[in-house]
């Protein structure tokens, strides 16, 4: 009986630990971001989604999206570790109408949303802080700098955001390191 229980638990853990194929995992929009063609006001949004695979049991991936007033697309700023392995900067910025895409199968949660005049005033400060991010070419899952270090650091540079990352944003504390 005990042997069968051990085998069952081992199989369950192995199945649960399988992370599937990231190439086929959903990257569809979650439908939680204001669409830029209908929302003309400036928008700042910060998202968190469970990390891919077994890491998602305890950690999230976070990113920042900004849309100036009247813009047809958002600029998404995020740090992605696999880019460093390919000789590219970890910090990645791109334009999209859908900043709320699933993070390789995990539905994002909106953890900050600002619109209107407050967002318009803070977007230039965010964009300027992005250019000064000190670990743009580095990535280390633990303790950091990682994908959660980046928004935490932006939040320290632009405290008016009032950004509070979830406890599961492992690596966010690395942003407090003295340079």
From TrEMBL:
<dbReference type="Pfam" id="PF12570">
    <property type="entry name" value="DUF3750"/>
</dbReference>
<dbReference type="InterPro" id="IPR022224">
    <property type="entry name" value="DUF3750"/>
</dbReference>
<protein>
    <submittedName>
        <fullName>DUF3750 domain-containing protein</fullName>
    </submittedName>
</protein>
